[in-house]
């Protein structure tokens, strides 16, 4: 399972900017899939920690949908859910790209718009 846990300083970047960046770094229109990887562990999801984050995530999602995906006939399927207990990925997935330099290309190196 691949997990991304992002911590941010709201003094440096707003939550809305963070959510939009998340959408720019992957395909949020494929259900339970990223590239050739298929299964529920590859779903696109945003886990919120407050009602304000939930509201912002939904507003940004609607804006990104209207501007970038609706014109292409695509629909964002990213789940927006309250955060629950979190476990770090197992050691084999920690620093994956450094341990596997010939492995997957990191999608965050290419913005989609």
Automatic annotation (TrEMBL):
Record key words, sorted: Oxidoreductase
Entry EC number(s): 1.8.4.11
Enumerate the InterPro entries for this protein. Answer: Met_Sox_Rdtase_MsrA_dom, Met_Sox_Rdtase_MsrA_sf
GO terms (molecular function) for this protein are: peptide-methionine (S)-S-oxide reductase activity
Q: Name the enzyme's class.
A: oxidoreductase
The protein's matches in SUPFAM superfamilies, at most eight in alphabetical order, are given as: Peptide methionine sulfoxide reductase (SSF55068)
Q: Where is the Peptide methionine sulphoxide reductase MsrA domain?
A: 7-106
Q: Does the keyword rRNA-binding apply?
A: no
Could you say which protein family the record assigns here?
Belongs to the MsrA Met sulfoxide reductase family.
Official protein name in the record: peptide-methionine (S)-S-oxide reductase
Q: Identify the species of origin.
A: Rhizoctonia solani
């Amino acid at each position: 399972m691949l997990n991304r846990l992002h911590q941010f300083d709201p003094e440096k970047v707003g939550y809305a900017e963070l959510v939009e960046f998340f959408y720019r770094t992957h395909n949020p229109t494929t259900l339970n899939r990223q590239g050739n990887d298929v299964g529920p562990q590859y779903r696109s999801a945003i886990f919120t920690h407050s009602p304000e984050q939930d509201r912002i995530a939904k507003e940004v999602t609607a804006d990104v949908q209207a501007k970038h995906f609706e014109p292409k006939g695509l629909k964002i399927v990213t789940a927006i859910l309250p955060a629950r207990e979190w476990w770090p990925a197992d050691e084999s997935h920690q620093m994956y790209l450094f341990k596997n330099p010939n492995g997957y290309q990191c999608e965050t190196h290419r913005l989609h718009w």
